[in-house]
Amino acid sequence: MVIEYAGTVIRSVLTDKREKYYDSKGIGCYMFRIDDFDVVDATMQGNAARFINHSCEPNCYSRVINVDGRKHIVIFALRKIYRGEELTYDYKFPIEDEDNKLHCNCGARRCRRFLN
């Protein structure tokens, strides 16, 4: 285990509204989907996990785990991580049509070119 992705748990239906609010204020948005119903919003009350970047060849992976009936997002190492090495995981965004593709800039040898 490397770190838990911490923040405020909100209902999925609120994410678009919050994202628009953050955009209007010039605030970067950091959200991570737990399941179809809940999302962790780490934008205002998160921890350092929100700054972990995407990579098509990551050194970490994320899992939703259940602890005492509550779901938590935890980042785990895929391999030994060396001091000073950037932490990364695959965001696994849903596949989108060509007009909504997000370009990937991870720089991995086998980069997929898109996050979604």
TrEMBL record:
Claim: Cell cycle is one of the keywords in the record: no
Keyword S-adenosyl-L-methionine applies: yes
The SET domain, residue ranges: 1-92
GO biological process, one term: positive regulation of DNA-templated transcription
GO CC, any one term: histone methyltransferase complex
Gene Ontology terms, MF aspect: DNA binding; histone H3K4 methyltransferase activity
Pfam families, per database record: SET (PF00856)
Residues covered by the Post-SET domain: 100-116
Keyword terms, alphabetized: Bromodomain, Chromatin regulator, DNA-binding, Methyltransferase, S-adenosyl-L-methionine, Transcription, Transcription regulation, Transferase
Stored InterPro entries: Post-SET_dom, SET_dom, SET_dom_sf
Top-level lineage group: Eukaryota
Protein name, per record: SET domain-containing protein
Organism per entry: Lates calcarifer
